[in-house]
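Appendix B.2, paired examples.
Example (i):
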Amino acid sequence: MPGQITFSVQLPPVPANGDVDSGELTVKIGDDLEFNRTFAPSDSLIVDEAFVGPQGATVHLSMVYIDDAGNRSANPAVFDGTLLDTVPPADPAAPSLVITGEV
């Protein structure tokens, strides 16, 4: 049975001369869920308990930078991916013998 996949978003480094005051990330999971998250230029990873979706769902990420005057990047950076289960199950414990008699 397919499960729910959790994820976080790795942000690229902010350009040194980028005049960036903050950023905005839009995360769309499948056709139904969409979230907007604001982040600081020093942030490198966005972790959010809302970032979860069904295995096989498409995830669309879109990101813009915002300067101190409220101007937004002209061209958002985008990424499209699919939530895949790449986490292996737990390792099994070692089997053992049960002596049941002697013949």
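Example (ii):
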Amino acid sequence: MVQKHLHMYKQVRSGSSQFKCIDPECTHLSTKSLIKGNLAICNGCAKEFVLTTEALRRVYPKCNNCIKGNTDSIESIEEEIQKNVDTSAIESLVKEL
């Protein structure tokens, strides 16, 4: 069973009013009118946001910042994290093994 979590939605079919969570272990399915105003995870930046009418017009709902293009993509955030990882600590652990 899936733990309680915020959903990251995808429209079931283009033009449909049904949305489902894209977590492979989650079976949540709902309509646009029921999820409007709820918290969700943005498909652009992976941050929490409130689902708006504008966000629900998209197949993959995004927050206002991502819709307007004011935020970095998930890939660029992941690259930045990788750059800042302290590899010396990992190397010392590997040597100990």
